[in-house]
Every structure is written in structure tokens, then in C-alpha cells.
Specification:
Blueprint: E1 2-4, H1 15-26, E2 32-35, H2 41-49, E3 53-55, E4 58-60, H3 76-79, E5 83-86, H4 89-94
Parallel strand pairs: 1-2, 2-5
Antiparallel strand pairs: 3-4
């Protein structure tokens, strides 16, 4: 599966696309996702929403919602099972030619 995981109507990807990624993962499918640029979730939310509040290890956005800080470009549940590509859909499709690394 190839998925556009760029921000959509806010700092997160489209919820329908995210659902489809989850379904593909549950079915054991290879998932490639493309985003315009690699930046942490914290950096993306700050770029799109403005000032973040930091108190100790907790980071919240302008609405007071906590922003996860794992240093990943997407939510951990998307970033881990997805082979992420910075660039366009064409860049992502070119990655299909690359071998898949096995964790076994």
C-alpha cells in the first residue's frame, strides 16, 4: 500500500487514510507512506499551530492537547510499521524497487 501521510486539515494525516494504513497492517501488507519532509511531530505541530507549551517532559499544543515526543515524524503507531519516504508519491513508488529489510 502507498499512503499520503502529509498533514490534512491540521497537523495529522487524514483519518481515513490512517484507518486504511491500520487495515493494511492488520492484513500483513507492505506499507509505504510519503510525507513532504521529515520533522518530528513536535516540530510539525509547532510549525502548523504556533507556540507550544513545555512543562517538564510534557508538551501541549495551543488547545492544551499533549503532543507526543518520540522524535518521529508521525504518531508512533504509524511511523513504526510504515516505510516512510520524504518526498512525492513518485519518490515513494521508487522505493518499491528497494529491498525490504526483515527484522527476523
Amino acid at each position: 500500500m502507498v499512503a499520503n501521510l502529509n498533514p490534512f486539515r491540521g497537523p495529522e494525516p487524514d483519518s481515513g487514510t490512517v484507518f486504511e494504513v491500520g487495515y493494511a497492517h492488520a492484513r500483513g501488507k507492505l506499507i509505504l507512506g510519503y510525507i513532504n519532509q521529515f520533522e518530528s511531530t513536535v516540530d510539525r505541530v509547532e510549525r502548523l499551530q504556533g507556540h507550544l507549551t513545555r512543562y517538564g517532559n510534557e508538551i501541549t499544543d495551543r488547545d492544551g492537547y499533549r503532543v507526543e515526543d518520540f522524535g518521529l515524524p508521525l504518531n508512533i503507531m504509524l511511523a513504526v510499521p510504515t516505510r516512510l519516504v520524504a518526498g512525492s508519491v513518485e519518490d515513494c513508488l521508487n522505493q518499491l524497487q528497494q529491498p525490504v529489510m526483515s527484522s527476523t
